[in-house]
Design goal:
By secondary structure, the chain is α+β, with helices and mostly antiparallel strands. The protein is built from 10 helices and 12 strands. Strand 9 and strand 10 form a beta hairpin.
Length: 356
């Protein structure tokens, strides 16, 4: 097959496998290599039955070939070369490859990850819901700030006028609570500051967070590093990203009551879709803890403002984290079960930030 023909397939986000009429694999694009976790060299020259060992997939291909039409199977569970099963859809389309490889025809197998599509849809829905909630909270915060200042000012004047020393305790309570609420309102309004982009080494961000958390907690908390030192610099707001990771790690430490293990992991991902944009590379930061996990009843609302699983928590840490990540064009998701919770921060790597 010509290099020019392959160039277009190499850039597709969809996993593509080309087979000839004998069902032998002749080409696999990078998206398929990533999806199935194999290399093209390891499967080219083998039949799809040998590679996938799935009768439903075989039937899908046979139907498309027999009817000479495109056919889609929407619910496949297939793996390749002993890897775990994936929930996929597959479209098999007969194609004349004469212009690429003289003398043979074949089929294009186009695989789509159903779980990945559902995840993207969930991310977009969550972003829309969170944006609406943030706007509501922002408007409420503006409305609350003015009377709150008046309450504190009146309490301060009253404190100066009181003659009985014992009564000062009550005015101090009013002023302290007003200050606490003022701080809360400021935090609700802060995310609307636009990022200040600059080149960032993500490991400097993680090391800063690590030192802060270790200073806050006893030696019973172990924060381990699992860094890919080859990850590139990215463009972003360093202080915002520090706040993102700090909020997530602090939540993990609080959930474990300061006793347990947190792992900070960095990797590069290829062919990633973030908020409907496709990127050739993305930086993935994982914060993994071995704590009790996120309660089931909180999982759908964990990024909503004022939702907290901890008594006394403000419920703003993850909301702020999601806001800052969205301003960087990225996404934050999580996986959780007792003994293993991972918050996954995915940030786009722009062209020029990594060797192509």
């Amino acid at each position: 097959m010509s290099n020019s023909a392959l160039a277009g397939l190499d850039l597709l986000a969809t996993a593509i496998v080309l087979i000839d009429t004998s069902l032998v694999v002749r080409y696999v694009n990078p998206a398929a290599e990533n999806l199935f976790e194999f290399s093209s060299k390891s499967i080219e020259g083998h039949t799809i039955t040998e590679v996938f060992q799935d009768s439903v997939l075989d039937a899908t291909v046979e139907y498309a070939r027999a009817k000479n039409c495109s056919y889609t199977e929407h619910d496949l569970r297939v793996g390749a070369l002993g890897h775990g099963k994936l929930q996929l859809s597959c479209t098999a389309t007969p194609v004349d490859f004469e212009e690429w490889i003289k003398g043979w025809n074949g089929l294009v197998l186009e695989f789509r990850h159903i779980e990945q599509q559902a995840r993207i849809a969930r991310e977009e829905r969550l972003m829309d819901q969170s944006q609406a909630n943030r706007e509501l909270i922002r408007n409420l915060a503006h409305e609350i700030k003015n009377p709150l200042g008046g309450i504190r000012g009146a309490a301060q004047l009253l404190d100066h006028e009181l003659e009985r020393p014992g009564l000062h305790e009550y005015t101090q309570v009013i002023m302290k609570e007003a200050d606490r609420l003022q701080s809360l309102m400021d935090r609700l309004l802060t995310p609307h500051r636009l990022p200040q982009p600059a080149p960032i080494n993500i490991h400097e961000v993680l090391e800063r967070v690590r030192s802060v958390i270790l200073a806050e907690y006893s030696s019973d908390l172990d924060i381990r590093r699992d860094y890919d030192i080859s990850v590139p610099l990215i463009t972003g707001d360093k202080e915002q990203l520090i706040q993102v990771v700090l909020n997530v790690v602090r939540n993990a430490a609080q959930a474990m009551k300061g006793r347990g293990e947190v792992r900070l992991r960095t990797r590069i991902a290829r062919q990633v879709t973030l908020l409907r944009k496709r990127y050739k590379h993305a930086l993935v930061v994982q914060v993994i803890d071995n704590g009790p996990g996120i309660p089931e009843e909180l999982r759908e609302r964990i990024f909503y403002p004022l939702v907290s699983g901890r008594e006394g928590g403000s419920g703003l840490g993850l909301t702020l984290a999601q806001t800052f990540v969205a301003q960087h064009g990225g996404a934050i998701t999580f996986e959780s079960q007792p003994g293993h919770t991972a918050f996954i921060l995915t940030l786009p790597v722009k062209p020029g930030e990594i060797a192509q």
